[in-house]
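Why do we bother with a discrete structure alphabet at all? Because it lets us treat a fold like text: something you can write down, compare, and reason about line by line. To make this less abstract, here is a complete entry for Fe-S cluster assembly protein SufD. Read it the way you would read a sentence in a foreign language you are learning: slowly, and without expecting to understand everything at once.
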Amino acid sequence: MKPAPTLSSAFLKPAGDFLPAPLLELRQQRGAALADMPLPTRKTENWKYSSRYLKLSDELATSLPTTGKHGTALAAPGHHVVFRNGVMVPEASDFPDTSGVTIKRFADLTDDEARELAERLDNTLDANAVQLARLNSARFEDGLLIRLAPDAVLEQPLFIISETDADVSGSAYPRIYVDAGRHSQATLVEEYIANGAEPVMVNAVSEFVLAEGAQITSVRLSAEGENVQHVGATGVRQAAHSRFDSHCVGFGGPMRRHDLQVRLEESGANCRLNGVVVTQGKQHYDNHTVIEHVAPHCDSEETYRNIAAGQSHAVFNGRIHIHQDAQKSNANMSNKNLLLSTGAEIDTKPELEIYADDVKCAHGATVGQLNEESIFYLVSRGIDRRNARTLLTMAFINELIEQIPVEAVRETAQARLNHFIDQTFEEA
């Protein structure tokens, strides 16, 4: 029998050492635990659709250099923090001057601050389900710690721009940790962009911990090039009456994957997860979400939509887990998918796991093509066939795009979607 593939030892070589000692120790521990780590295969349930797209060759093991030019990110009102190849760039960043809001790069933490952070990192993610999040913990060279004091309000969005410079092959490991105090409020935008043409991998991890009554809006825009593998994970833990809103917009590539895990741990917590993915050519995108209803009287609402064209492949796996003590839970999940060609593939797997008897839960999934009767109706009203298909496709996706609360992200997503549709329907 052929042995299962394991993570190459090249990925476990020490990275930069300018972090505080407690974080270096944590990284060393995580790296030691990854020795001989099995890589996902088709037999790995939560990777069965994506394992064949994951390419962890030794040329990707080297950390990308952190010096050089900076790309162009969203030009939008707000505060901006720039990462380049996983390391924060202070001179390109604009920190908010807001009472109760503290932002520090990992490299600037005191030993006491770093020790406290080291004890909290990885506590929001299921390590058994998200293997490559553990690789980030073994390799991150820097990160961003965001602390919101009780009642602190960040009025403008905080844009965290993660640039990947792919002039040479290698990998980058950006890391974000958000500690939202009681009744604090903030909107964070993660934007992932790239320049250069060499094969690279981005392994990004973000963690959010929300205290009682905190309100966090998270917007994630993945718009890297065709040479970039992106494997990301987001973990969230919520206390009583907190609210977490997530808006993820992803454009396909050779390998794209995002794991989003939310734990509603105290009564009254609620979350809303929206996601939009488009793929074309031979691209791949995989969204895996988990919502854990641990406490009673919690609400969750999840809506994801995929569009696949060409010979591309999109995946959605959403699981809602209602624990035994989570009575009076209210959970809804919807996944709608649109195939724009006969060669495209979409796999969807909504799951409900319920151990409480006084709950309201629903889930549904659909996969289909553009309705020919609807196209005929529009054509009969004087609209040419290509514009008719464009209108119907945009209508399918715009409902979620319009809910993104940051105008710059909405405009960027709309422009990219228009380009996607122009390319997809150019033969029509």
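What the structure line is telling us, in plain words: Residues 19-371 form one domain. The longest strand covers residues 185-195.
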